[in-house]
Design goal:
Elements lengths: L3 E11 L2 E6 L4 E5 L2 H22 L2 H8 L3 E2 L12 E2 L5 E8 L9
Antiparallel strand pairs: 1-2, 1-4, 1-6, 2-3, 5-6
Length: 106
C-alpha cells in the first residue's frame, strides 16, 4: 500500500555554504550550494526514516511528532511551494512516498 508523508525543509545560508533542517523530524544536514544541501537533507531524512522502519518505531515516532500519513500524494500541505523568508532563508516542501524506503530486514 502506498503512503506518503509531507515534511517541511528549512534551508539557510551559513558560511561557507547552506544548512538544511527538517523541522518535523529534527534532522539536519548541509551543503556547499542550495541544491547540495537539499539533496543531502533528503538523503538524511530517508536514512532516518529507514532506521525508524527497521527498528519498528515509525508509527510511534510519527504519532509523537504529529506526522500524518496520506494514502495518496498530498496536494494540500502546510508548505506547498518554496517561499523565501526575510533573512534569505526559505522553506521547501518535501513529500516522500514511504514504500520507496530501502529497508533491509533480517
Amino acid at each position: 500500500m502506498q503512503q506518503y508523508i509531507a515534511l517541511t525543509l528549512l534551508i539557510e545560508k551559513d558560511e561557507p555554504g547552506y544548512v538544511a533542517y527538517c523541522q518535523e523530524l529534527d534532522v539536519a544536514s548541509s551543503g556547499a550550494t542550495v541544491e547540495e544541501a537539499t539533496e543531502n537533507i533528503s538523503d538524511a531524512v530517508e536514512a532516518y526514516l529507514n532506521v525508524l522502519e527497521k527498528e519498528g518505531i515509525r508509527e510511534q515516532i510519527f504519532k509523537e511528532k504529529g506526522i500524518r500519513m496520506f494514502p495518496v500524494r498530498p496536494t494540500s500541505v502546510p508548505c506547498k511551494e518554496r517561499f523565501v523568508l526575510k533573512n534569505g532563508a526559505f522553506y521547501h516542501p518535501y513529500i516522500k512516498e514511504l514504500h520507496q524506503l530501502q529497508v533491509a530486514r533480517a
